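Minutes, project check-in
Item: structure for the 165-residue chain
Input as provided by the requester:
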Amino acid sequence: MTGRLLALPLLAVAAGWLSGCAGTVAPEVAMPSMYLPLTTQSASLDTGAASDMISAYRANHGEAALRVDPDLQKLAETEAAAMAVADRPSQSRTVRNAIGRLGYVSPDANLSAGYHTLAEAFSGWRDSPPHNAVMLSADATRMGIATAYAPGSKYKVYWALLVAK
């Protein structure tokens, strides 16, 4: 009988210990924002992550970091939205002229569509010589970057990266 009485408290302790283990399951690890799809109306680009990614890439190529500029950011948002409404990428020349009218020097732009994540856009731009040149512009010190979602478009996501000094 004594063995049974000892066994009950030990079972209770073991059960409590095991139930405590169930509460220590590792929390779900969040996916880095660069891999999150931007293919819904509620999705938004992590501008800080984009700036960090492009600035790190520039640093690896001996160029200075870019900082997000409020006016370039607003223009990038406007341009991405306009492309989404028109359902086609804009002409870089037109956007460069708009950046220049704001008083910036050495304006340039990557305007594109169809990349669903920041990682895809960055890789596509890196692998395209003209787009890569924009990211690595030696004169650039400021940037704005934005996306716009167009649900009825074959592209779904439009991108505007604007750089200038």
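Outcome recorded: Helices lie at 2-22, 47-60, 70-86, 92-101, 118-127, 129-135.
No further action items on this chain.
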